[in-house]
Design a protein that fits this description.
- It contains four helices and no strands.
- It has 110 residues and is an all-alpha fold.
C-alpha cells in the first residue's frame, strides 16, 4: 500500500478542517465575513472533508473511515455542518443542557 496516506495524517487533516469550519462559523456570527463567502468556505471544507474520508477508505481502518464518511454526509445533508466533529462541538452544550433538565425532572419528588 505504498502511496497511501496514513490514518494519523488523515485525522490531522480532519481536525484541521473542523477547526477551520468552526472558525468560519464564528467569524460569520461576528459579521466579519459576509454570508456568500462563508457559505462558499463551508461547502469547500465539507468537500475537503469528504475527500479526506474517501482517502481514508484506502487505509487499513477503511470501515472506520466509511463510518466517518457516512456521518459526514448525514451531518451536511441533515443539519448543514461541514464536519460531524463541528456538529458535535456546536451541539454539545444543547445536549448537556437537555440532559441536565432531564435529570432534574427525573429526580424531582412526585
Amino acid at each position: 500500500m505504498s502511496g497511501v496516506i496514513s490514518s494519523k495524517k488523515l485525522l490531522v487533516f480532519v481536525l484541521g478542517i473542523a477547526a477551520l469550519a468552526l472558525l468560519t462559523s464564528d467569524l460569520r456570527q461576528r459579521d466579519l465575513v459576509e454570508a456568500a463567502p462563508a457559505f462558499a468556505i463551508a461547502v469547500s471544507l465539507a468537500l475537503a472533508n469528504l475527500a479526506v474520508s474517501v482517502a481514508g477508505l484506502r487505509t487499513r481502518q477503511r470501515w472506520l473511515w466509511a463510518t466517518y464518511l457516512a456521518a459526514s454526509i448525514a451531518a451536511f445533508l441533515l443539519s448543514g455542518f461541514s464536519t460531524p466533529i463541528g456538529a458535535a462541538i456546536i451541539l454539545a452544550p444543547v445536549g448537556i443542557e437537555l440532559a441536565a433538565d432531564f435529570m432534574r425532572e427525573a429526580w424531582r419528588p412526585s
